[in-house]
């Protein structure tokens, strides 16, 4: 059965994930290092992992299966999940695919290096209403594609 896994600690679209999951009767795993706020729902499983920089990522990467979906802004986690046959989408609606993940990892590494050397001092742009809307549309289409076997 198709399930959604959410890298939940800093995820701004948890409520939107639950809305899509309700529509399709899917289980959602909200995974984080601390208690995850949000409404309780029979389809939602809140998973609190031990403290550690990659504990939530490790839990998700081990639990996710082919055809499942991960919601994350973490490119390396998305790559790990794609390697296991899962689909991945960021909180702004950007899809991670087998074809794009290599380039996305390389860009992440380049930007990390530029920040460390002081060439870039800013981070990602702030989350906007259009990002939330794009995310909802992307997740809905992704769920439908997976259900159709694409």
Query: SS-based structural class?
Result: alpha/beta
Order of helices and strands: EHEEHEHEEHH
The total count of strands amounts to 6
Count of DSSP-assigned helices: 5
Q: What name does the CATH topology carry?
A: Rossmann fold
**Runs with pLDDT <50, length 5+?**
none
How can the largest sheet be summarized?
Answer: 6 strands, mixed
Residue fraction in strands: 15-25%
Radius of gyration: 15 Å
CATH architectural label: 3-Layer(aba) Sandwich
Report mean pLDDT, rounded to a whole number.
88
Strand order of the largest sheet: 3-2-1-4-5-6
- Relative helix content: 40-55%
CATH top level is Alpha Beta
- Report how far the terminal alpha carbons are from each other: 15 Å
Total of domains = 1
Bulk shape: globular
Task: Describe the protein's architecture and organization.
This protein is an alpha/beta fold. Helices cover 43% and strands 16% of the residues. A 6-stranded mixed β-sheet has the order 3-2-1-4-5-6, with helices on both faces. It starts with a strand and ends with a helix.
